[in-house]
Specification:
The chain is of the alpha/beta class. Helices cover about 30% and strands about 25% of the residues. Strand 3 and strand 4 form a beta hairpin.
Amino acid sequence: MSQKIIPSLWYETNAEEAIAFYAGIFDDYKAIAESRYGPGAPLPEGTLLSATFELAGVQFMVINGGPHDKFNDAVSFYVECEDQAEVDKYWNALTADGGAEVQCGWLKDKFGMSWQIVPKQLNEYLGDPDPERAQRVMQAMLQMVKIDIEGLRAARDGATV
């Protein structure tokens, strides 16, 4: 079954570079389709017009459409991670080559796309039935840039972070 709703990302001219960047980060990249500009188009003939691909089981579509609105935090991609090693892997890869760390597990990649790199433990700890424990986790998370699972655990358990 194909995906009914597919996020579509608008790039000025570097969609092909973005695809290669994401394909090098996520182990399960799969190309699905692409089309290229022909003669007389707004971008040079042979330039990628659009492509559809899959990352982590989610299909994406990209287009090289020329100057348009820039990416902003109104849309981000949330990556749920199993452990700190996975948090570190995605964080380091997505902030490489001009990406920027933001706060609370948020970052912007070198194309300006916002990502949330979040260990599954964060939601587990925030949902603690003890509201004081959950609040300590929230306060610890608000002080973090990249999420640190041990720091969250220590805050949950009442240790000094």
